[in-house]
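Posting here for the record, re: zinc ion.
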Amino acid sequence: MEIDVVDISPAEVAADVLAFAVPEPVTLPAAGQELDRLVDGGIRHLIEDGELKGERGKVTLLHTRDQLKAHRVAAAGVGGDGDSDSLRTAAASIALRAGEVGGTTVAWILDENGLPPAEQVRAIVDGTALGPYDSGMWKTKDELQGRVERLVFCGPGAADAAAEARRANVIVAWTNRCRDLVNAPPNICTPSSLADFAEEIAGRFEHMTFSALDFDEISAAGMGALAAVSRGSENPARLIMLSYDAPDPTRGDLTLGLVGKAITFDSGGLSLKPADRMEEMKSDMGGGGAVLAAMGAIAELGLPVRVMAVVPSCENMPSGHSYRPGDIVTALNGKTIEVTNTDAEGRLILADALTHARRSGATHIIDLATLTGAMVIAMGDYYAGLFANDQAWAEEIRAAAETSGDHAWIWPLHETYRRFIDSSFADMKNSSEYRQGSPILAARFLQEFVGEGPWAHLDIAGTAYLERGREDYYGSAGATGYGVRLLAELARRLS
Ligand code: BES
Ligand code: ZN
Ligand code: ZN
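Prediction output follows.
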C-alpha cells in the first residue's frame, strides 16, 4: 500500500473514496460540514433522513458530481468510544466498502477534535491494511476482493503525522505476512520452511544475521526438551535464530530477546487431542511467526536497537519415535523435566529457547506462545495474558501493547503456583493433574528457564488465531498476526 500525505483542501484530493469519521450520536465534524457545503447539503439530508449513522463500522456513501475531485464521500461511523480500535474498525469498513465498489484509492480527512493525529493515522493504516486481509489465499478461484493500493491523508495535523503513517504501513505489511504464515497449512508451513522465511528476511536487510540448528545440533547442544518434542515427527526440528545488530543502538546496555513458540502442528502427540478443531493447531506457530515478522519490521524500520530472535520449531506428532508420558528429559540449563502430558509441548520447546536466548546475551526477554487452551477460555480473542518476573518490564510491555492494538492484560505469577509442577521423579513436571490455573502454571514452568534478568511471557492462544471473526477490523476467522505490532512498538520504545 502506498501512503501519501497531502497539504491541500479535501475538495482537491483525488480519491475513489474520501472518508471522515462520524461519532454516535451523529454530529458533523468541521470536515464534514465543509464537505456538506461542497455537496450542496447532501450529507445533512442523509442525517435528517436517518440514513447516516455513527455506529462503529457503519459506512454511508454519497456520490459526488463535479463539486469535489473525489468520486465519493464516505461517513465512517466510529461509535461513542472515540478510541483507536474504533477508528481501526471504521477504516477497515471503509477499505472493504471501497473494494466492493472497485475503488483502490482511499483518502481520509483527519478529525481535528479526535485522537492525536499520529494515533489517527496509525489506526487508519492498521484498519485499512488489516481489515480487507483475505484468509482464502489457497482457494483456486479468483475471489480476491479489491485492495486499497493508495491511502491518502489530509486535514488538520496530517503533514506532521506522515512519518508515523509510513512506519505503521511497514508494520502492518509484516503483520499480514505473519498472518499468511499462520494461515498456511501445516503440510506447507514446516520447521524448515519457517527457517527459509527467516533466512530470506536476513538476506533482505543490513545488520541482520540468520542461523539455524538442525535436530542433531539441537541434541548435541543439550536441548533435550526441544529434541524430545520433535522426535515423533518426520519433519525435522529447527532452532531458528535471527539477530539484528543496529550499528548505533540508543541503549548500548540492552539486547532485546524475542522468543516465539513455533509448533507447526500440535496434534498433542501421544496425549492425542480430540479430532474436533484439531486443524486449528496449524496456528500453534503463531508466536514464532510473530517474532520472525517483527524482526522484519524492526529491520525495515532501521530501529536503533539490538534484537535477537530465537524460534524453536517442530511438530508435535504421535509415532513410534514419539516422546512418552513418563519420559524424563534434561533441558539445556541442566534441569530435569518429567513429561506428564505430551500435549504440554510448548513450554518444553520454549524452555530450551529461553535458556539459549539468555546465554546468547539477551538482557530483556519476551516470549510469545499459543500456550494454553485455558487462556482462550479466560480472555477470549481480545486480550493476551501477560506474565513477568519484573513489574517494570511487564508495565512497559503492557503500555506498548495498548498503543499497538495488540492488547495484553497482566496476570499474577506467584511463587505459590510452583507446587503444581513439583514432580516425584524430576526437578519438575510439564503439566499438573489439576486443571486449576493452567496458564499461570505454564508461565511458572517457563520461569525456571529464563535465568537472571527481566523476562515476560505472552500467552496468545486466544488472540493469534480467531475461530470466528471479531466483528471489528478482524472481521473474519483465522490468523491475526498478533504480536507483530506489539513487538515493533516495544522495540521502538526501547530505541
Ligand atoms: N497449543 C496448545 C494450546 C492451545 C489450545 C492453543 C487451543 C490455542 C488453542 C498447547 O500446546 C496445549 O495443548 N496445551 C494444553 C496443556 C495441558 C495439557 C496442560 C492445554 O492447554 O490444554
Ligand atoms: Zn499441545
Ligand atoms: Zn501447542
